[in-house]
Amino acid sequence: MGRLFIAVSMVAMVAGCASKQQPDIASTAGGEAAKPVPGSQDGTVVVTGARVGREESRDRKVAAPMLMAPPAPVMTGYAVAVADAEVPASATNTRPTAEDYRYFVPPVVVATDPGREVYDGEEVSPVKIAAAEPVSTFSVDVDTGAYANARRFLTQGQIPPRAAVRTEELINYFRYDYARPDTRETPFSVSTDLAVTPWNPDTRLMRIGLRGYDLPQDSRPPANLVFLLDVSGSMNSPDKLPLVKTALTGLANQLTSKDKVSIVVYAGAAGLVLDATSNPSEIRNAIDQLSAGGSTAGGAGIELAYRIAEANRIDGGVNRVILATDGDFNVGISDRDQLVEMIEKKRASGITLTTLGFGTGNINDALMEQLANKGNGNYAYIDSALEARKVLGEEMGSTIFTIAKDVKIQVEFNPAVVSQYRLIGYENRALREEDFNNDKVDAGDIGAGHQVTAIYEIVPAGKTAWIEQRRYEAPLSAAAQELSSEAAFVKLRYKLPDGDTSKLITTVVPASQIRSAQIPTGDFAFAVAVAAFGQKLRADNLLGNFGFGDIERLAGSQGDFYRQEFRKLVGVADSLEEPRNGG
Description:
Helix content: 25-40%
Number of helices: 18
């Protein structure tokens, strides 16, 4: 043990990071010897907090480790040498145990606050000429993070950055009056409708709505959840780690005896602080004792969380990592492309990833959204305890339980009926036409009770279009003219959660719906109002003079709390909008 103290002190002195106020890392760990990570090549280790005396269950793959999270400030600036450390007997076993998994360290550096938020917004979707590009293909998106984040900006008296607004996530934040699926064999219903565009009488809005079936509590599969919690210094503010603890405690209270939760934390290093358990009090106690400090080894935490999820896998159940962070990864693998590539490889194991974003000032929205996308999961931004209850309480089923995966939508417009079109939102979910039939191409997943809404703005043939007719434009094909009773052909592909081969659903949008379209009302009007709000925040010039006041009136009077809140947010945006020239 003395040799370990010497090793710690020497490395800390060389690094110049040891503070006089920081206690010795070995004594902080309750006097335990450091142990290597299973499978590590360099023998790096970390000493974590005190162990809890809970006996290992005979049928568990992972033994019970500590309840106390490692105090992250103590870990900051230390690298533990292991040349003289004793190697535990468990390290020589063919099957790793929790004793091995508890000690997992990347290089450690002092945290720095970048003082910025990262977004990766794309340009508003361009207009397409149906005769030249009749097919539109995209992956579904059930994320809602952009709406909650926009709400956070507005409640703080700021218009959100354009790059932070993904219109489809604003639309999909709300529920609409779509028909329930008839059977579980077809996991969602498909509906279409059309209306006159409120901001352009010459165009029409075509809405495609999906609604997933709801899983009753007694028929939900067992869940193996790994809470991966960022306890680094950047999380040390009231809207971050304290809110994480509130959110996940609420989720833990809803789990049943057939579900189990593990907790992995990361700061300067990553460690397992709670082995898989179904005991709500143990979960709450472990969460309650977490504290923040240190740098952010996010890549190491993700790696360890997936290992723990695999060790506790439930065949036929839900196996999911839930990552709660501000996304400020600054130690180890911190490059977004590398992290996304790691998640892409991990998803082949059948373990999905939900990302929950927290806080202000350095939220990495771009990374969080992409990790969830590539991890076959969903991304939500938690800006309040109320939002935590919505995402992990009211919508727990859709957040955790997948009913369909790799869901793609493809719409083919008939140029004899539709001359031009554009998809509102979904810019970063666009797919190539050939991707639709390729089951190897990843796409979005739908959870129990999830809804997905897509809105196209289309120009009927013969109406004034955005783009003038081309001089050398080819005449319409005979096939298009013969099928003039059809405005569009909608196709959806999806796989069941345990399937590898996709299934196809098709529906025809009749041209008569275009001719009979009226100004949207009721539920449709509200969806259009949300779409217009997103596009207005993105400075979409095709909205013309349609302003926030028009959007609020279009949304109409609402009884639902979240819809009422939306109308108030539109009013706030109206008050914050810079006046136009001359007015």
